[in-house]
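// run 5 | inverse folding | seed 20
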């Protein structure tokens, strides 16, 4: 396995065991996916951007 893959595996292991939190920066409706893309391109905020299809 490559070193990169080892790091990814370690990260997912930490997430699975609840030792690493991934903050959510913003949630967009799927209908607003263009706005979500624009936000990701200009935002310097740390965290994941999620699209929700509800």
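// decoded
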């Amino acid at each position: 396995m490559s070193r990169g893959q080892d790091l990814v595996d370690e990260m997912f292991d930490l997430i699975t065991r609840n030792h690493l939190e991934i903050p959510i920066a913003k949630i967009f409706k799927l209908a607003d996916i263009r706005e979500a893309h624009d936000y990701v391109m200009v935002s310097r905020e740390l965290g994941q951007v999620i699209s929700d299809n509800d």
